[in-house]
Design goal:
The protein is mainly α. The chain has twelve helices and seven strands. About 30% of the residues lie in helices and about 5% in strands. It comes from Linum tenue.
Length: about 350
């Protein structure tokens, strides 16, 4: 299972169709150039080495790869035009919702590269860019040295609630949403799931809860029995991008989320370079830009699902006879170490978890 393009469209109501959100290395080498143009500043003023006229003392607008978009918005309310004010607002909004990093008060300046022409904003596939950034953040968070996770966590959390009912807020029946409403709005203001009293075993407890899941505990098609009929691009197979980040997208590994029996998928595509050390800072995946052409040739780069598999007949998690043996041989089927220590710790704690 994974988050797919139709999940992003249903949950956030942002478009899947549109141009791939890629940028060349030349455009990405100096993102501060676009920020200077947005604010009407020079590089000295942007970095805080010289004072901005009419705005008091010096201050770092751009530092350590992050941009103080909130500060810029306040500045442009006084010194900007309607266009630059709108651009800075969108930069702040997108940087604090869809493309979140772990800097707290800064946003990634590369977001601005997609806002320089406001009339072209609706031409991008914001769903694929959001998903590519989240895929990368989840990959980095999986490293042993990681200390947090970035990305659109609203998307991640609401996806969990929709597909795994046992992790939903306790004693809450989510409302039905309208056809043009974001499904994520069903969970606004709801408390977290059942809590674990002892924080020292909290992680082990939820790992065990994940290991105890069965296929019957998963809601495989929460939005539509055949979501690809509404969001055809969800069957695309290839690369999705956000700026210089590229991630492979492969729905053939998630056929049950389309209402079809899962078969053994084809071998995965391989990147040009992949380094995944324990420290997330060294996490690098490089995919040639030539792969991007697949996005514009959907019929040649999609899972033709009706020829590839059959709809499930008896239960939503149906697989072919040989799939489970393949899955066990190629996957990590359990999160928790099978040594009993974590189980003993969890059993000794006062916990509550409502399924």
């Amino acid at each position: 299972m994974t988050i797919l393009l139709h999940d992003v469209q249903y949950l956030l109501q942002i478009p899947v169709e549109g141009r791939l959100m890629s940028r060349t290395s030349e455009q990405l080498d100096h993102p501060e150039v676009g920020l200077c143009a947005l604010l009407g500043m020079n590089s000295e003023q942007l970095s805080g080495r010289s004072e901005v006229p009419g705005f008091g003392s010096k201050g770092k607008w751009y530092d350590k790869g992050g941009f103080l978009a909130d500060m810029a918005s306040r500045y442009l309310q006084v010194n900007g035009t309607h266009v630059t004010e709108a651009q800075s607002y969108l930069l702040l909004m997108l940087g604090s919702t869809l493309f979140v990093d772990k800097s707290r008060d800064r946003v990634r300046p590369v977001v601005n590269l997609f806002l320089d022409e406001l009339e072209e904003i609706d031409q991008y596939s914001w769903a694929s860019g959001t998903l590519a950034w989240l895929y990368r953040c989840l990959g980095q968070a999986s490293r042993a040295g990681a200390r947090g996770v970035a990305g659109c966590l609203t998307l991640l959390q609401c996806w969990i609630y929709e597909y795994f009912p046992g992790f939903r807020p306790s004693h809450f029946e989510p409302p039905v949403v309208g056809p043009d409403e974001a499904w994520a709005s069903r969970w606004i203001g709801q408390p977290a799931t059942g809590s674990v009293a002892d924080p020292s075993v909290r992680l082990a407890f939820y790992r065990r809860a994940l290991d105890s899941l069965t296929p019957a505990d998963v809601f495989w098609t929460p939005f539509d029995q055949r979501p690809h009929l509404e969001v055809r691009r969800s069957l695309y197979t290839g690369v999705i991008r956000f700026a210089d980040i590229g991630e492979f997208y492969d729905p053939a590994r998630c056929l049950r989320q389309f209402g079809y029996r899962q078969m053994i998928p084809p071998p995965p595509s391989r990147p040009q370079r992949a380094d995944r050390p324990e420290a997330p800072g060294g996490y690098v995946i490089r995919i040639p830009e030539s792969f991007d052409a697949a996005w514009d040739a959907l019929l040649s780069h999609m899972v033709h699902i009706d020829m590839y598999s059959q709809p499930w007949r008896t239960y939503p998690y149906e697989t072919t006879a040989d799939y489970l043996d393949w899955f066990v041989a190629h996957s990590h089927c359990r999160v928790l170490r099978d040594d009993g220590d974590a189980d003993r710790l969890v059993d000794s704690a006062a916990v509550r978890f409502d399924h």
